[in-house]
Amino acid sequence: MEVTFSRFVSALRHADVPVSTGETLDGFAVIQQVGVTDPYLLKNALSLTFAKTQEEKVRFADCFERFFHQLAFQEPPKRSMLRSVDVERLLQDVEHRGSDDLQNLIASIVQGDRDYLAYRVQSTAEKLHIQDMHTLREKSSFAEAILRDLGIRELEALAGGGGEFGGLLRYLRQYVVQQVRTFVNEQYRLVVDASGKQALIDAALESHLAQLPPAYYEEVNKVVRKLADRLAQRHRRRAKRARRGALNIKKLLRDNIAYDGAMFRLSWRSKKLERSSVYVVCDVSNSVSRVSRFLLLLLHSLSDVLPNVRSFAFSNRLGEITDLFARHDHERAIEEALVLWGNGATDYGRALIDFRNLVKDDLDHRSTIVFLGDARSNYYDPHADVLKGLSKRVKQVYWLNPESRETWGEGDSEMLRYGAYCLKTTTCGRLKDLGRFADSLLSATR
Question: What is the pTM of this model?
């Protein structure tokens, strides 16, 4: 029971249901009180112990059902394939040509004894330590090992020999393989990817955002928000330490006179922090729009710890979209920005002029400008002199480019010319890149 319950707790954690050590001990106490004979009672009791929010209750219920109903061969074979089979003749044929294990396998299928098959698969999986599976690559190796134990190689040879039952044996081979792979997939979800989304999250973190299919946007948006939450919590701790300054010795001595000089009450010199503004300028043309949407979402999700953020979007002409984020939720604001400003032929020079005209009276030595784009201007005049003038008026200019550095300066790319007037230029094709940049931006603008 202890081993099974520990695995269940591990599955819950993989399903994004956080369970602390103390809650695990509470769960053991719950099992001792309610027992395991009534699944419905056990499920509800553990749900009250582990699931704190409505979303966690849904994930808990799904994980509980899959963990305690993880038997193999839950689906029966097609009746149409077995309806006209002479079972005795089939088993006699297998007896003459196959081993005892193969006979037991086929007899269990055609006679409907799927409990035996489930037991065989489960016991083999336990021997192989399937709970130690960690990667997608291991799924196939575990499935192959279980199939070998069931006698799949012998079944393949028997089916390949033809004969009266050749077609049926080929179907039974396909049925066994499918059922075992389904079982291993379920095990993988429980021990590695119980939420069903970890693989997607890992892919989003590692893959280039420009290649991310639109169907995955909703889940990746959740990853971006979690990333923003972690960055915000980390920055709040940094900001608290930064604001308190050094020890105020005079006030420290005065405040602790009542304690005979023992330093019970610490006093710090306060720091006056100048608030700055961040201007985010995003290319939202087709080639860069997928990366732009996630940078905008990330930075606006950090609005409570970032200084004043003003956002701008362009393909050829540029416009401010800050008010869209004030009026709508972030996803809708981003979609409207793409529609309003993402349909023209990319012209960075024209966009820089528009940006200068919009903000030239607002820029000062505390301002930070962040450009996101591939700097490919379709051979229009890049107006690098405009960026040069802007960089002289502000504290710092960053440029994020989703292309690799090897391509900067090739063809219509003006990246090398623009980069000369930036404090830092960096690639930003992955969520990890955006996360690192946002972390450095928080530190540079506090």
Answer: 0.55
